[in-house]
Amino acid sequence: MASWVRAMQIAFTYAGTIVGAGFATGQEILQFFTRYGAGATATILLAGLLFVWLGTRMMLLAGSLGAASYEDLNKHLFGPKVGEWFSLFTLVMLFGITTVMLAGGGSVFNEHFNLSYQSGLLITLVFAYLVIAKGLQAIVAVNSVVVPLMILFCALVVTSTIGTPGADNWLTMTSDVSALSLWSAPFLYVSYNLVTAQAVLVPLGASVADRKTIIRGGVIGGTLVAAMLVAGHFALASQMPGIAQFEIPMSRLIARLGENVQLLFVCVIFGEIFTTYIANVYGLTLQIRQRTGWPIKPIIIFILLGTYLIGQIGFSTLLSTLYPLFGMLGLIWFVRMMMSRSRAAG
């Protein structure tokens, strides 16, 4: 029983790290899958298989290496010199994404809770410090609450969509995009997400001694991500093409269930932003400590203040500037991860 409980904690942490602001708002699902029409259902299933396989593989490999941070994994994948440089690029990438998450948290407070953008940033920073300072188990605990809530809202969206006029769009919707774009989308999506998720999945895998527990957690976590992708695609496709014009398309779908439910969903969106934020800050903290030997808490404060300063640029500007660059870097890591050989990694 204890092994299964630990496996579920791993699964929720895995899913919570993947499901960030873009996923919870519906924008990632829309851009990587739904806009490609009926073929997106097949590409989502492919993405799910990749999440199960490579996410589990990463955690097993981290365990076999006894990795202190994702730098140890990257040195194993690319060699000592290239791995060190790749980890440095990853650090910069993680910092950029972490800043985007913080900016997203500030925007949620500003747009939905009638607080200033600055107040939203500061509230997010304070809660983040309180969680991260308690270590990996606190991050796991937060994900164990937020991810089930996200699953619940996905289920609500699906049930409210069944029977509507466009409910079969996910199987019949046409698109004029090329087959290359359609089938490259799941690889880009998985590679980008896993290269950032290694910040927390590597230390998580290294902290669990039992191989079967890691495998169970990876399989369940990857399956949960795939299931939520299918649920989001099913609901969003039913409202295409009109739903594509909204900044937070999932919120428009939830609005059908009433104002109170919509407000709770906004809280879940913030929760998903927050889980990705704390996971990335934790990964950055381990990486900087490994390189410098500095105490953990001053590093956490340094990173939080850095994301606050860069976060002044704004959510949408950061998102459009940084994500395409990170996608290319993620694809290089993805290919190397697929090619890696290790008995422990399977």
Describe the structure.
The chain crosses the membrane at residues 36-54, 85-109, 115-132, 139-162, 182-206, 218-241, 261-284, 296-315, 321-339. By secondary structure, this protein is mostly helical. The chain has one domain (2-339): Amino acid/polyamine transporter I, CATH 1.20.1740. It is built from 15 helices and no strands. The protein has helices spanning 2-18, 21-25, 27-32, 40-65, 70-78, 80-112, 117-132, 136-161, 169-172, 179-207, 211-237, 249-254, 259-292, 296-310, 315-339. Helix 4 (40-65) runs antiparallel to helix 11. It starts with a helix and ends in a 7-residue tail after the last helix. 50% of the residues are buried.
Give a concise summary.
With 346 residues, the protein is mostly helical. It has 15 helices and no strands. 80% of the residues lie in helices and 0% in strands.
Write the layout of secondary structure elements.
Blueprint: H1 2-18, H2 21-25, H3 27-32, H4 40-65, H5 70-78, H6 80-112, H7 117-132, H8 136-161, H9 169-172, H10 179-207, H11 211-237, H12 249-254, H13 259-292, H14 296-310, H15 315-339
Keywords: Membrane, Transmembrane, Transmembrane helix
Protein name: Membrane protein YkvI
InterPro entries: YkvI-like (IPR038728)
Properties at a glance:
346 residues; mainly alpha; 15 helices; globular; membrane; Membrane protein YkvI; transmembrane; transmembrane helix; YkvI-like
Given as residue ranges, the uncertain stretches (5+ residues, pLDDT < 50) are: none
Q: What is the C-alpha radius of gyration, as a whole number of Å?
A: 19 Å
Outline type: globular
State the CATH class.
Answer: Mainly Alpha
Separation of the first and last Cα atoms: 25 Å
Q: Could you spell the SSE succession in H and E letters? A: HHHHHHHHHHHHHHH
Largest sheet features: none
Number of separate structural domains: 1
Helix content: over 70%
